[in-house]
């Protein structure tokens, strides 16, 4: 073991210096452990002299000697800095290498693997692995625990009796020595206790860092992710803290062992009756254990409910735009409220048990002593004040061991459950697809007879073929097909180059696997562009997922050349919260030339000019401040820049405009990536003709395969049918309009003549992007044009010897070439896309239409410039927690009167506690009550002497009764106090939760644009956990102990008047000490809160992008970033805990002075000044203050630090801006509004946030009732912004929108949004059932639901599911394909049947045939509705009543489509020319082949 640890120490971890995910992806230098790191050995703390650390960022603890270590003197510097200047995150020390998450993850992983190997998955224990990981520190902590427990009983056993004996014997002698000895013993107690905590803190940091790092590593590498984002965030937030607490406090349960020594001494002190006292004392230990088990069971029940709540919150935050647009805030509030009620029921029981558990340590000494003293007096055994109060002092000394028991047992119980949850994750299915070696070295991918599926119930089910299912398992249909792609060149005797093989039928696989791909046989060679098409749910995405190793292989073989890199573009683009450049580079080295080429190939350059800081602009989580097309092109650019050999594209062009898509296909896929192997999924069939090979998927099988020409030759084939339906849709729509082809021909001819004129005037010499990449793909090299319509560039055409066109363009002539073009043409084309131009159905290089100045994108931007920063740093309060925070909490708890009653209950209960001991002192002081004894003298005479035995007191029975009844009062009022406090604190937390939720969902979209989801989830996970569980527990003990201290000081002051004078300087020192340490503790707690949010955001971002991360093999980089963020948070947590201990040691010393002053008063006090029983009572209470004083002060500071969570919650409640009210009672529209659906835009101007430029600029439109409006324009032109304005997602800067005569700015948002419907670009489904997603308010019958599903052509899919309408939908709806999700969203809108409907790229992910059917459904179902349709497929909007063409937020064209098509200068006509040419080419290709 020692050799392995030494190897781990010498290992060089990598340090990444970024602050966000994106910065993490930059190439980071390796972290070289410093000399202090290498020298950091725990045993060296025993050396009395240690040199200080040279690096100011090195944790001073490393160089601490024994005394420095014990009293945390090394932390004085940072606390003083906090007192003087305050602390920031940059003031944190670097994490020592041995305390880092990286180092400890290696350690824990090794022990966990040994645990699995030795005990197997079922019997393996995370707890055992943790114990082995920190065994040395655990042993040291156990020894220190026994040491300080020993010091705790030395005073009561040896010192206190001798000090009190002076009161009875009148002998001073060594009383001062004993008093000083008592003080020294208490100092040793404080020092050893502090040292124990410091050892535990370090061990706890190592456990938390190591275990969470291994858990995160498991998440990164787990093939099938079964946990949601919310669950994983909760795992890191709460379970990580549970492990920390268990490691920190668990060892203190051993302190009870020293009670054995105390029990032996009690027998010596009281005789046999001492056994009764300790039997009573120890009898409460099983009670503590029982209560701990109850707490554990409560916690086990509560955590899944909390997970469910946080998981739902994560969904709401992710889909907040849709929630708002559908006015579903109340629906989700009700669902959250129901979950919260269940959570509250368990919390109420748990808090009640915790409160009773916490009160036991103060009641056990009372009951133990009371039972003993009552038994002694009832049986005729005398009791002196020295005996009584020495015994009470001994019990109080052991009270810490018992007092820490509820904390320790609670921590161990919750730690045990956290270990079980960690184990569930760590032993979760981690099967990796068996990927064999490549047989043919020319192939990059080989699949033979492969059948693949998803785990039943898996979160990551991506596609779901429309095949009947039995018991959740897809039934294979057909014989399957095989394909071998051979550079696009068919071999003799083989159709299309595919080798047809006889395959064995699928004979099952795993019983819990839903098979989605069956009998797949294919191989990919270098340089092929392979297109995949098919209907929704046919298995297209699944084929890509299989190649990524994300699925289960049930039969057959798959082989991938492991030396080749893979890039992946998902159907829904995954974007990090980082800059544009960081998203594209994705951790690779920055190559400026390559980067510029990639940017141009992916049509991103114009977008950079629009962004505030160009490519250094920060992008929000999930690309929230980008359009769908921009996100997808950025995702494509990431794949292109990666220089991977295999590029998997899952329908990435569905989110971009037709001309941009054509530009990317030609310049990027067939130009820049011409030497790469590409698997290209698309529903846009016009691109299939440009592919080297085409696979047609159906029912999870390769239904057809071949070149475009070969497939078109089969007129009855699936592919030919798809192409024809793709073409016929346009033809059918155009029958009622001006003949499109004639208009397009006119446009083409006009453009071509202008082009030739420009070419004749200007000579062009520099090669453009496509010619830089050598040549285009095979079809071009063979002299086959990709497009049937011949395309000419602005440059002159030069033909080489092979007849291939080479197009050249001089950079110097860009501007002049641009100026020659006609103004109308320049205006139209430049507006269409800055990276692509449409001339004769092809793409012109960007340089031909853009000013040279526009080509420079932010090279001169300063990295430190504030522009482009989207996500603001989290606000961190400074100074003390404001009184307003406490007031807000009191208000949430029910108000001042309610809280006043709670305080009264606490004070009364504690007064009853103190009364028992005070009455005991009074009873002992009464002695015999003046009873006189007749004593015979030596001379035989009798004399009367007053007895000092309380047994002779005539009121003995009365005193015993009062003493016994006081115990009953202790029980009754303790329970009342616990119940009242629990209910009040739970009311406060529930009200705060409800308020912050309502405030959050009422916040405008601008808040969610700039706030990471992890930061919001932090409030609802960790902060709410603090308020629900820890704050009530801490605050109750603080209030309780504060009352005890006040009563104690009062009792001592009543006995020693001069003691109050001695307390004055102690109080002054205490105030100064409190001011110094409390500021640092608050600062560190706030920093710990703030450093936690990026950690959660990183977890959420990672889980959402796991497919992309794994495809690019970036797991290690994300793992390193997680460790870096964890180290940062762990250091803040460690310093916070250390600051607490720093204050505790110094408060213990103050308490020591109180004890010393009391002991010295007793020693020097004139005999007979006060009764001996009261002196004993005073010393007993003073000793009780030793631990109580510092513990209460620590509770005060920790309670205040917990209130920072209340502060963070109330800051949202008070400071978040709210949207307009949901309902304006004075201005509510009629319930039948809108009756007609007429919409009028009057000079509408809108911006997304204050300080940003306008996105809509003077939009004026008059839309008649039931008109169908098609909205087109390039990416970022303002199409979706029209919908945002209509739904009032942002308030207008100027202008108005009127619907049926009602100005929508005057009515409530709920009244407005509930009457509108939207089918969003990114389909959103929630965790729940199909029924819940369609009808969250339960307003429709099953028949209506099925009708809507049938109209949207998704009924068969739902019928095939277990449960059908009640079938479960996993997070993000990932057990459906994206197309199926869009169809379900359409069914949702269909049910609402609003008079006004917005379709935002609603059919982008749906195949052409289904799209055509859906368009018919829309025409029929929404015939009486006013409809706005945003689409990239122009045939979707071609039959609209009017076409709205937008550019740069302005209306460029707004007219009937036939009028726009009749004008060859119109932008819409030019866009249609592209689409028409693509469709014509598809048909021409088919005609040629036939």
Strand content: 5-15%
Major beta sheet summary = 6 strands, mixed
Structural class by helix and strand composition: alpha/beta
| Cα distance spanning the termini | 74 Å
Strand order in space, largest sheet: 9-10-11-7-12-13
3D structure, described in words:
- With 1490 residues, this protein is of the alpha/beta class.
- The protein is 56% helix and 10% strand.
- The chain contains 48 helices and 31 strands.
- The strands form nine sheets. It has a six-stranded mixed beta sheet, sandwiched between helices.
- A hairpin with a 2-residue loop joins strand 12 (693-698) and strand 13.
- It is elongated.
What attributes characterize this protein structure?
48 helices; alpha/beta; 6-stranded mixed beta sheet; 1490 residues; disordered C terminus
In short:
The chain is built from 48 helices and 31 strands.
Write the layout of secondary structure elements.
Elements: H1 2-10, H2 21-25, H3 35-39, H4 66-71, H5 76-84, H6 101-123, H7 126-133, H8 135-169, H9 175-221, H10 229-249, H11 259-270, H12 273-318, H13 320-325, H14 329-378, H15 385-397, H16 399-426, E1 435-436, E2 443-455, E3 469-470, E4 473-474, E5 481-482, E6 513-525, E7 529-534, H17 540-547, E8 552-560, E9 566-569, H18 580-585, H19 592-601, H20 605-610, H21 628-641, E10 646-650, H22 658-672, E11 677-681, E12 693-698, E13 701-706, H23 708-713, H24 718-734, H25 740-761, H26 769-772, H27 778-781, E14 797-799, E15 805-807, H28 814-820, H29 823-832, E16 837-839, E17 842-844, H30 883-893, H31 896-926, E18 932-936, E19 942-946, H32 956-1001, H33 1005-1010, H34 1013-1055, H35 1057-1104, H36 1106-1111, H37 1115-1164, H38 1172-1215, E20 1239-1246, E21 1256-1263, E22 1268-1272, H39 1279-1286, E23 1294-1299, E24 1302-1303, H40 1309-1313, E25 1316-1319, E26 1328-1329, H41 1330-1334, H42 1342-1351, H43 1355-1359, E27 1368-1369, H44 1378-1392, E28 1396-1400, H45 1408-1421, E29 1426-1430, H46 1434-1437, E30 1442-1447, E31 1450-1455, H47 1457-1462, H48 1467-1489
Parallel strand pairs: 1-8, 5-6, 7-11, 7-12, 9-10, 10-11, 22-29, 22-30, 25-28, 28-29
Antiparallel strand pairs: 2-6, 2-8, 3-4, 12-13, 14-15, 16-17, 18-19, 20-21, 20-23, 23-24, 26-27, 30-31
């Amino acid at each position: 073991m020692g050799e392995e640890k030494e190897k781990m120490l010498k290992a060089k971890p990598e340090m990444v210096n970024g602050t966000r995910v994106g910065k993490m992806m930059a190439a980071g230098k390796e972290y070289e452990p410093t000399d202090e790191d290498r020298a950091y050995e725990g045993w060296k703390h025993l050396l009395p002299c240690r040199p200080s650390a040279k690096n100011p960022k090195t944790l001073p603890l490393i160089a601490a000697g024994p005394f420095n270590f014990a009293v945390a003197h090394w932390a004085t510097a940072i606390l003083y800095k906090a007192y003087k200047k305050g602390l920031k995150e940059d003031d944190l020390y670097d994490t020592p290498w041995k305390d880092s998450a990286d180092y400890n993850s290696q350690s824990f992983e090794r022990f966990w693997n040994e645990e699995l190997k030795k005990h197997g998955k079922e019997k393996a224990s995370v707890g055992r692995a943790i114990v082995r990981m920190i065994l040395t520190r655990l042993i040291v902590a156990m020894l220190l625990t026994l040491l300080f427990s020993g010091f705790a009983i030395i005073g009561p056993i040896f010192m206190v009796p001798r000090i009190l004996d002076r009161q009875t014997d009148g002998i001073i002698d060594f009383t001062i020595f004993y008093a000083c000895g008592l003080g020294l013993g208490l100092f040793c107690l404080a020092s050893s206790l502090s040292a124990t905590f410091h050892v535990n803190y370090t061990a706890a940091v190592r456990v938390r860092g190591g275990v969470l790092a291994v858990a995160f590593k498991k998440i990164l590498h787990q093939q099938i992710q079964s946990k949601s984002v919310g669950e994983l965030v909760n795992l890191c937030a709460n379970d990580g803290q549970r492990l920390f607490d268990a490691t920190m406090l668990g060892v203190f349960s051993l302190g009870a062992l020293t009670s054995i020594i105390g029990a032996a001494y009690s027998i010596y002190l009281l005789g046999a009756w001492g056994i009764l006292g300790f039997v009573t004392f120890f009898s409460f230990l099983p009670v503590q254990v029982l209560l701990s088990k109850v707490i554990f069971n409560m916690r086990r029940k509560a955590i899944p409910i909390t997970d469910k709540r946080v998981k739902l919150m994560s969904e709401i935050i992710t889909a907040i735009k849709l929630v708002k647009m559908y006015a579903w805030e109340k629906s989700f509030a009700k669902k959250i409220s129901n979950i919260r009620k269940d959570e509250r029921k368990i919390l109420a029981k748990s808090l009640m048990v915790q409160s009773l558990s916490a009160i036991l340590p103060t009641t056990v000494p009372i009951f133990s002593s009371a039972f003993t003293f009552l038994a002694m007096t009832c049986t005729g055994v005398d009791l002196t004040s020295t005996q009584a109060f020495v015994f009470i002092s001994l019990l109080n000394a052991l009270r810490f061991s018992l007092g820490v028991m509820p904390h320790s047992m609670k921590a161990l119980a919750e730690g045990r459950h956290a270990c079980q949850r960690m184990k569930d994750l760590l032993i979760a299915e981690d099967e990796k697809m068996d990927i064999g070696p490549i047989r043919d070295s020319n192939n990059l991918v080989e699949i033979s007879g492969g059948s693949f599926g998803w785990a039943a119930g898996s979160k990551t089910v991506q596609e779901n073929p429309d095949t009947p299912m039995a018991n959740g398992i897809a039934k294979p249909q057909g014989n399957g097909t095989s394909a071998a792609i051979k550079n696009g060149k068919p071999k003799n005797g083989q159709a299309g180059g595919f080798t047809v093989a006889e395959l064995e039928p699928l004979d099952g696989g795993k019983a819990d696997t839903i098979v989605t791909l069956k009998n797949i046989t294919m191989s990919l060679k270098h340089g092929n562009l392979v297109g995949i098409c098919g209907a929704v749910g046919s298995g297209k995405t699944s084929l890509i997922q299989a190649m990524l190793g994300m699925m289960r292989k049930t039969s057959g073989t798959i082989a991938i050349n492991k030396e080749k890199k893979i890039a992946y573009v998902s159907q829904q683009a995954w974007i990090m919260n980082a800059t544009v450049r960081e998203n594209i580079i994705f951790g690779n080295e920055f190559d400026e030339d390559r980067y510029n080429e990639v940017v141009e190939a992916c049509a991103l350059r114009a977008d950079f000019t629009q962004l505030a800081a160009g490519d250094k602009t920060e992008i929000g989580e999930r690309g929230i401040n980008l359009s769908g097309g921009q996100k997808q092109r950025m995702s494509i650019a990431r794949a292109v820049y990666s220089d991977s050999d295999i590029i998997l594209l899952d329908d990435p062009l569905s989110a971009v405009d037709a001309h941009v898509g054509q530009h990317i296909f030609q310049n990027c896929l067939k130009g820049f990536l011409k030497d790469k192997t590409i698997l290209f999924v698309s529903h846009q069939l016009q691109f299939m003709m440009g592919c080297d090979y085409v696979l047609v998927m159906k029912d999870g099988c390769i239904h057809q395969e071949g070149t475009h020409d070969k497939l078109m030759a089969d007129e009855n084939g699936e592919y030919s049918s798809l192409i024809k339906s793709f073409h016929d849709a346009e033809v059918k729509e155009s029958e009622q309009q001006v003949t499109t082809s004639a208009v397009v021909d006119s446009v083409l001819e006009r453009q071509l003549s202008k082009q030739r004129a420009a070419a004749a005037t200007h000579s062009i010499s520099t090669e453009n992007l496509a010619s830089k990449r050598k040549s285009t793909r095979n079809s071009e090299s063979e002299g086959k044009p990709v497009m049937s319509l011949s395309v000419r560039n602005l440059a002159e055409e030069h033909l080489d010897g092979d007849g291939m066109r080479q197009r050249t363009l001089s950079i110097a002539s860009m501007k002049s070439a641009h100026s020659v073009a006609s103004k109308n043409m320049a205006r139209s084309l430049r507006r269409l896309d800055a990276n692509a131009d449409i001339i004769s159905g092809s793409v012109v290089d960007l340089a031909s239409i853009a000013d040279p100045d526009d080509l420079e994108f932010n090279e001169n931007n300063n990295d430190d410039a504030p522009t482009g920063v989207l996500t603001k740093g989290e606000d961190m309060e400074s100074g003390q927690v404001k009184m307003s925070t406490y007031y807000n909490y009191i208000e949430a708890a029910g108000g001042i009167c309610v809280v006043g009653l709670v305080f009264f209950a606490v004070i009364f209960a504690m007064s009853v506690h103190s009364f028992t001991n005070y009455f005991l002192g009074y009873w002992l002081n009464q002695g015999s009550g003046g009873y006189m004894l007749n004593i015979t003298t030596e001379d035989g005479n009798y004399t009367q002497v007053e007895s000092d035995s309380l047994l002779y007191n005539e009121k003995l029975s009365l005193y015993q009764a009062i003493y016994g009844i006081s115990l009953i009062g202790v029980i009754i009022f303790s329970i009342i106090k616990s119940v009242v406090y629990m209910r009040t604190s739970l009311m406060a937390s529930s009200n705060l939760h409800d308020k912050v939720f309502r405030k959050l969902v009422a916040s405008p979209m601008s808040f969610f644009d700039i706030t990471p989801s992890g930061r919001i989830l932090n409030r609802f996970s960790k902060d709410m956990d603090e308020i629900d569980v820890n704050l009530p527990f801490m605050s109750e003990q603080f209030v309780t102990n504060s009352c005890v201290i006040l009563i104690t000081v009062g009792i001592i002051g009543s006995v020693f008047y001069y003691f109050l004078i001695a307390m004055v300087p102690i109080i002054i020192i205490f105030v100064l000490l409190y001011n110094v340490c409390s500021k640092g503790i608050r600062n560190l707690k706030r920093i710990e809160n703030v450093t936690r949010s990026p950690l959660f955001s990183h977890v959420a971002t990672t889980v959402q992008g796991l497919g992309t991360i794994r495809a690019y093999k970036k797991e290690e980089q994300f793992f390193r970033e997680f460790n870096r963020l964890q180290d940062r948070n762990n250091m803040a947590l460690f310093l916070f805990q250390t600051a607490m201990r720093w204050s505790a040691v110094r408060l213990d010393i103050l308490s020591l002075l109180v004890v010393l002053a009391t002991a010295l008063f007793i020693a020097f006090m004139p005999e007979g000044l006060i009764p001996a029983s009261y002196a004993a009572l005073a010393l007993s209470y003073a000793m009780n203050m030793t631990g109580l004083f510092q513990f209460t002060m620590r509770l005060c500071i920790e309670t205040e630090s917990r209130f920072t969570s209340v502060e963070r919650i109330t800051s949202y409640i008070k400071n978040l801006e709210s949207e307009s009210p949901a309902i304006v009672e004075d201005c509510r529209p009629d319930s039948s509004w809108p009756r007609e659906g007429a919409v009028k835009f009057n000079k509408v101007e809108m911006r997304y946030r204050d300080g940003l430029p306008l996105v809509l600029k003077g939009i004026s439109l008059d839309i008649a009732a039931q008109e169908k409006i098609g909205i087109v324009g390039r990416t970022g032109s303002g199409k979706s912004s029209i919908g945002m304005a209509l739904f009032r997602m942002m308030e207008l800067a100027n202008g108005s929108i009127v619907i049926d005569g009602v100005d929508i700015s005057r009515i409530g948002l709920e009244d407005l949004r509930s009457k509108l419907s939207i089918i969003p670009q990114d389909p959103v489904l929630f965790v729940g059932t199909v029924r819940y997603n369609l009808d969250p308010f339960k307003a429709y019958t099953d028949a209506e639901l099925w009708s809507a599903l049938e109209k949207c052509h998704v009924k068969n899919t739902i019928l095939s599911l277990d449960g059908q309408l009640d079938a479960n939908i996993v997070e993000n709806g990932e057990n459906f394909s994206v197309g199926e999700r869009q169809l379900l969203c359409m069914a949702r809108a269909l049910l609402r049947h609003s008079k006004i409907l917005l379709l935002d790229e609603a059919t982008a992910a749906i195949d052409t045939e289904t799209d055509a059917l859906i368009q018919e459904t829309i025409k029929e179902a929404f015939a009486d509705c006013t409809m706005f349709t945003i689409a990239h497929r122009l045939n979707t909007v071609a039959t609209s009543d009017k076409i709205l063409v937008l550019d740069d937020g302005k209306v460029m064209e707004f007219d009937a489509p036939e009028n726009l098509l009749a004008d060859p200068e119109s932008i819409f006509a030019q866009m249609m020319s592209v689409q028409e040419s693509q469709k014509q080419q598809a048909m021409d290709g088919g005609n040629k082949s036939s």
